[in-house]
Amino acid sequence: HRHLLGIEGLRAGEITQILDLADGYVEQNRRPVKKSNLLDGRTQVNLFFENSTRTRTSFELAGKRLGADVINMSTDSSSVKKGETLIDTAMTLNAMHLDALVVRHADSGAVKLLADKVNCSVINAGDGHHEHPTQALLDALAIRRRLGRLDGLIVAICGDILHSRVARSNIHLLNAMGARVRCVAPPTLLPSQIERLGVEVHHSMKTGLRDADVVMMLRLQTERMSGQYVPSTREYFYFYGLDYEKLEVAKPDAVIMHPGPMNRGVEIDSEVADDLKRSMILDQVELGVAVRMAVLDLLTRERRQSDLAGAAR
Ligand code: CP
Known about the structure:
Pathway: Pyrimidine metabolism; UMP biosynthesis via de novo pathway; (S)-dihydroorotate from bicarbonate: step 2/3. The longest helix is centred in the C-terminal third of the chain and has 32 residues, at about 280-310. This protein has helices at about 10-30, 55-65, 85-95, 110-115, 135-145, 165-175, 205-210, 235-240, 245, 270-275, 280-310, and strands at about 45-50, 70-75, 100-105, 120-125, 155-160, 180-185, 200, 215, 255.
């Protein structure tokens, strides 16, 4: 593959290849004493039309740790503010001979549109409520490292699934890897016909979390809600906020995950979020860099090999 636009369509073997490679980058990322020169002379642009803390920073770190020149662009500082279209922005960047373009956009499908226009590798850093593939990959790496496998695990994804690209990418990945996925949410926060994606649907945390190995919490994405009932914080926490009481029905060693940013006291209780034994929230952040190093390595591999072959001729 030249691009990583989503998890949908990836085979288990391809996912395992990325996770295995990322595993190898974990130590290098912990002790980056000597920078790799794998991406020496390569240019990576991070083009973010939506806010980000984790994804943008970790893509920047990943590129830099592999030796690439990394440029960050956000909507506020680009000519998009002057009315330039997405396609014109893409064509402009393409003329500068990039190797990798990391894109986040508020519209589902915008990253694919852009990928069709450029010569470099495009990585989806989140498009609308469609997909956020590197998030699902880092989540899978975190689970695999902690629980040793993905196959056969019961994973409960809880909260605003309707607006969540993280949920969609995770559902595709976990299904491909043989996990049992449950979506736990009020009916108003579930996409219609979500069962078609091969998940179990639960409207109560009590049944949804029963015997779960992994409990993955999602925030209410109020910025994507329009014209629908938005529950009050207290009401939402009462029914769907993760606390120790609701966690009791899960496996005794069930792990807690959250892609961030989290809203403490809304979808997750602070004590649970900070539980060092069970919460993997900061492991997820750490592993995000290793996963993004692996993705940058794999997607630019063909280009690097053909450049080497060209130089040898
Ligand atoms: N999980 C995630 O995508 O976080 P950011 O929005 O901070 O990048």
